[in-house]
Write a sequence for this structure.
């Protein structure tokens, strides 16, 4: 696994708390919904949640493994978004989607750099 570092620059102050909450919820539901398939992702989630790696102001320096963890968590949360009884302002949801897209693109670039092509 590559030790390359990928830089993500959050553009809005709501993006870091959103990702930390996503990781927290994913860890909470991991045992019943299997958000991640391995201990590496769970360890990444715990480390990112309880460290300063996802600071409110950024930039974030993340490994491919951390990006993979965030991609899985945000995909899980996006799938569950409509099932929670919470109504989020559409403008805020746009900021969430923006950071999800940036993380997904960074992960895709990391995979492509290694010759792996993710669909």
């Amino acid at each position: 696994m590559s030790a390359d570092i990928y830089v993500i620059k959050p553009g809005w102050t709501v993006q870091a708390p959103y990702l930390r909450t996503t990781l927290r919820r994913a860890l909470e539901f991991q045992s019943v919904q299997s958000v991640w398939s391995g201990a590496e992702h769970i360890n990444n989630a715990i480390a990112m949640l309880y460290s300063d790696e996802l600071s409110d102001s950024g930039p974030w320096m993340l490994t491919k493994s951390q990006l993979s963890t965030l991609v899985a968590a945000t995909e899980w949360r996006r799938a569950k978004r409509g099932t929670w009884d919470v109504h989020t302002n559409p403008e805020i949801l746009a900021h969430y989607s923006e950071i999800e897209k940036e993380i997904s693109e960074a992960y895709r670039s990391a995979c492509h750099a290694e010759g792996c092509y993710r669909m």
Notes: Residues 5-113 form one domain.
